[in-house]
Design goal:
Elements (H helix, E strand, L loop, with lengths): L3 E5 L4 H12 L3 E6 L5 H6 L3 E4 L5 H11 L3 E4 L10 H28 L4 E7 L22 H18 L5 E7 L1 E3 L13 E3 H14 L3 E5 L9 H7 L13
Parallel strand pairs: 1-2, 1-4, 2-3, 4-5, 5-6, 6-9, 7-8
Amino acid sequence: MSEIVFLAGATGAVGTALIPLLKDAGFQVHGTTRRADRLGALEDAGVQPVLVDVFDAPALAQALDRIRPWGVIHQLTDLPATLDPVLMAQAVANNARLRDIGTRHLVAAAESSGVRRFVAQSIAWAYAPGVQPFTEDAPLDIDATGARATSVGGVVALETSVLGAKGMVSTVLRYGQLFGPGTSARGPAGTSPVHVEAAAWAALLALQRSAGGVFNITDDNPVVSNVKAKALLDFDPSRRVARGHA
């Protein structure tokens, strides 16, 4: 396999774990960052670095038109590394804006450059109150208020853009609360956690196997069901990334 994958958010926690998996699977990886000081780390990981901001739609479209990737994986977030409560109010708004505007720009660039497969990160704790465990067809909490309304609005915008993309197989992965290397939690936290490396495996499996749609990506738990991902993607929440290779 020699297809090119455009990894948006390559220096984040999931992106970092995903790079070796993509490379081991034979993909050529072009990874994005907004920061010039991170370009060297991407090169060291065997990635073709792309310095671009998804809010700059013309630059993003130009990058994808030049690279012409077969697949795009969207792992972009805009949250403080430690989820500092003092910073979170503004971070929630920033993250929702990224999920909305940034995703629209990325989808548009992918459509115009002929991308065949698109995988995007969403969240598994945006469901409306109801019968548990929540499956992927359960309604999202569009009647939420306050900061949760902002967050859910960003999720709805992201998923609408991705699932409405034309000319490609589009998949949304609703991750549980991430823990592990590069995240703010060493161990499981929240009602539906998932290890960051299991989340990375899910992204690779979705790129390779998904026929499109939405999948919950979580550890086994009573709140959010991961049955669909296990059945259709062969997702295993206990799977981890081998260390010591690029």
